[in-house]
Amino acid sequence: MMQTDFMAWLDQQQGRQYDLHSDHINPVFVKMLRTIGFDKGYVRGEGCYLWDAEGNKYLDLLTGWGVFALGRNHPKVKSILNQLMDRNLPNLVRMDCGLLSGLVAEKLTSKTGGDLSRVFFCNSGTETIEGAIKFARCATGRQQIVYCDHAFHGLSTGALALNGGEFFRERFGELMPGTSCVPFNDLAKLEEALSRKTTAAFVVEPVQGKTCEVVADGYLAEARRLCDKYGTLLVLDEVQAGLGRTGKWFCYQHWPSVEPDIVCTAKALSGGYVPVGAIITRPKIMDGVFNSMERCVVHSNTFGQNDMAMAAALASLHVIEEDKLVENAAALGEYAIAELRKLSKDNPFVAAVRGKGLMFGIDFARPKESFKLKMAWDMLHKMNFGVFGQMIIIPLLQKHRILTQVAGYHTEVIKFLPPMTITKEDVDWFLGAMKDVLDDTLRVPGTAWTTVAGLTKRAIKA
Ligand SMILES: Cc1ncc(COP(=O)(O)O)c(C=O)c1O
User: What CATH fold (topology level) applies to the domain 40-73+325-461?
Assistant: First the structure.
């Protein structure tokens, strides 16, 4: 029954997802969705949009945390995957070399250029970080990994040990030893840490996912110099920022003199279809890890290089190139950030609009003026830190049909990760909605404030 008309069978199950998740996956997550009215039960995704069962169309600026950089179900990627499915390829023989993985590595390294000519494939962003940690320790014979305040590199225990906030770490016990944290964009503190000459790698996101903070001009070049001076590898986590999102193939390429030792990428590489991650590095580093025939698979994984992931990656790289998505991200990112700055400059809750290309966010803070607005802010924050963001994302979805999320826990940042295929019309849809939602924050008392206050009270009681 199921295989003859699987889709008909699946359609019959429609509507059960929240109960199934409550029973078997994560009931608290379901409760959260229901509390803020995000339980939309989307039934279709195409390009920049999602549709619910009533046929309402939503603009997706969350893109599955950056996975749908090409939009959803891109026809070119889909067509290539369909062709592959019909071929019965020998996939994952293991004691052989796959053609597709070689082609992806060739294409990917043509975009990094320079000495970054080797690739290790894995299945997720966090796994790229785990690999980078091992490669750096192996290459330098050192233990220590330095990371930045507010950093996010994934949630497996090695990557989590590099998380620049307490929220994700607490209650999970001791993580990987040998790590230390430096403030983001602080070269003096970085030098202080590296000068001990015990650091294998400095791991940093050129645009921080949790804050949308961008490395200052000159920062990476100086970090590069310090890494060279003290024998440390420079590892750039471009899991989110990489593959065009910031307006260059790799974000570090905004500063042409910088060549990292290791670049981690994932998310967009999947084409939104098959999980994949890639660590791109120098031959010397790879050769140090895989240094004999006996050790030729000493770092490996079961699913890495699988044909579906590799075809999705190859197709995605070609689409990004052919459809000029890097250029689109640069142009529309610049437009969106500039316009968002303009329309929010008089809103006293907006502390900053920051980011690069199509990875940008808006940061909220307690107003400096207006007693009434300060009181409203304090009242909300007494109930729950970080709830102000709900006052933005809830009306964005309910009133304007735009899907977003607060960027991180215990921050006031809302991040936007539009598909790189977004059009100016859709950016304008977003800007119009933001203007309306921001204007509403100034109406105290008003529906935006009472809705969020009521919701917070209910959430606390529940
Ligand atoms: C910069 C960065 N590094 C690593 C990761 C972890 O990737 P994954 O969730 O695929 O393990 C993420 C995920 O959001 C990320 O944004």
Answer: Aspartate Aminotransferase, domain 1 (3.90.1150)
Q: Is 190 in the pocket of ligand 1 (CB under 6 A)?
A: no
Residue ranges per structural domain of the chain: 40-73+325-461, 76-322
Poorest-confidence range of 297-306, 357-366, 369-378, 453-462?
Answer: 453-462
Q: Which pair of tokens denotes residue 63? A: 């893109």
Distance from the alpha carbon of residue 13 to the mean position of ligand 1, in angstroms: 31
CB 408 less than 6 A from any atom of ligand 1: no
CB of 205 within 6 A of ligand 1: the answer is yes
Q: What residue has token string 């608290």?
A: 28
Per-residue confidence (pLDDT) for residue 410, from 0 to 100:
62
Q: What is the CATH number assigned to the segment(s) 76-322?
A: 3.40.640.10
Q: What is the mean pLDDT of residues 86-110?
A: 96
Residue 287 and residue 274: Cα distance in Å, rounded? 28
How far, in Å, is the centroid of ligand 1 from the Cα of 428?
A: 29
Nearest CA-CA partner of 130 in 99, 110, 156, 152: 156
pTM: 0.97
Determine whether the shortest distance from the Cβ of 125 to ligand 1 is under 6 A. yes
